[in-house]
Amino acid sequence: MESRRYLAAYVLFNQAVADHLGLHPTDVQCLSLLTADPGPRTVKQIAEMTGLTTGSATRLVDRLERGGYVVRAPDRQDRRRVLVTPVPERIARVTAVWDDLGPAWQSLLDDHSEAELEVIARHMRRAYELSHTQMQRLRSTPKPD
Amino acid sequence: MESRRYLAAYVLFNQAVADHLGLHPTDVQCLSLLTADPGPRTVKQIAEMTGLTTGSATRLVDRLERGGYVVRAPDRQDRRRVLVTPVPERIARVTAVWDDLGPAWQSLLDDHSEAELEVIARHMRRAYELSHTQMQRLRSTPKPD
DNA sequence: TAGTATTCACTGCGCGACGCAGTGAATGCG
DNA sequence: CGCATTCACTGCGTCGCGCAGTGAATACTA
Question: What distance in Å separates the CA atoms of residue A68 and residue A86, rounded to the nearest whole number?
Answer without folding.
Answer: 9
